[in-house]
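Request from the bench team (R.T.):
"We need a structural guess for the complex before ordering more zinc ion. Sequence and SMILES attached. Just send the tokens back."

Command: build protein-zinc ion structure.
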Amino acid sequence: METTRRGFLTAGAALAAAAGVRRAAQAAPADGKRFYKGQFHTHTYWSDGSAFPEQAIQFYRETGYNFLGLSDHNIYADTRRVKKVGKGKGFVRQEIFDAYRRDFPGSVECETAADGTTSVVVQTYAKMRKLFEKPGEFLLLDAVEGTTRVVDANGVDNQVHMNYLNVPGVPEYFRTCGTKATVAQRIGESLKAVEAMAREKGRESMFILNHPIWRWYDVKPEDLVANPEVRFFELCNGGSPYAPGKGLPADGFATDRFWDAVNAFRARRGQPLLYGVGNDDTHGYFGTVSHSPPGIHCIPYNAWSLVRAEELTAEALIRAMKAGDFAACEGVQPEDFSFDAASGTLSVSVAGKKNLCRTIQFIVTKRDFSEKPVGTVSIEPSDAPEDKQKVYARTVNIYDKKKIGCIAKAVSGGIGEGVKASYTMKPDDLYVRARILSPERPPVTAFQHPKVHVAWTQPYLRA
Ligand SMILES: [Zn+2]
Ligand SMILES: [Zn+2]
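Reply to R.T.: structure attached below.
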């Protein structure tokens, strides 16, 4: 990493270009609403991310993001935190500290002890707001990643992580919940704890079940069928390495299939559908990630959400997302999308890109799907250490993909051309959603990450 200011910015722009990201092209305002681009899952030196909050925010703001949630593990950044500069895990790398001093001289509070060790204060969200927020252009959302583990009687160990937004604090529950619960119980209790704190603080909150497939299918579709109050999950997480491919069928068990399994059950039961969010789960900003093995890219600019809201406030964004008026995006985003609930018609458009043929797919689940799994897959994570094999033992249900999450229609554009398409629900469709495919290689190559750029609309029900 170069150490000039220009070098720092150029690195950000290069990453953005590698991810195929342009500054968000904003659609013309319709009924006073417009699209805002952002993501909710970012780590900094407040927990295990490798950047000061100022650096993380600058990376995003300079590539056209309108909103960002810094979501560190079980911590809301309003206390005092000091990090030491040095080598190895837990330290601020010297070149990151040098870049911080150079780019944010007004922020730096540090002291050097007699033994030569430098300690640096990590600044609070309140200070970040003053530094970066601009009405109508850039918003910081209060965010935390509630980070928990659940261990069953056989020693099977699941990570259950949940982001919540617009609640400035950490419910006691996340500090005291321990490891004894089922995954479904943990999710339900966490949601209740977050909602209680939101009520206490008079805030409208949003709760997202994070990276269900990480590490080894730790959360199963049934866990979200059992918790219909959970409205959002992470459909795309750029940061997690995801489960290893060993022992899985060729078509795997991607988050798309996870999503449709949950929504098939929910739609049949008249429950609210689950919506999918795009997030980066950024940990590294400077080419390396402190706690991940080489090849795992927790990089910025991979996945985001495009929200159509009345204004750039936390309340307006959350309201729009609860109404399903947003898309999850990984490297490509829709130009426009709309759903006419009366006729059950979903319309989507995407701009053209030089040398590429883009495709819009419409995906449905059929009313007569069977709730009985067509099979199970047992995970044998043979790349886990010998003594950890038991810890990662999993069996997941596979449902009939001819009825659940099947492609009802696909429309491709010519080379370089944009695509516009629509689909009207058939009487036997439970819900419809759309997916845009753009045949470019994403910067993240982890197993279960999409192999081409994808954008997803939410699933919609006919009135
Ligand atoms: Zn996590
Ligand atoms: Zn995370």
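Two things stood out. The pocket of zinc ion (ligand 2) is lined by residues 41, 43, 145, 281 (CB under 6 Å). The first helix runs from residue 5 to 18.
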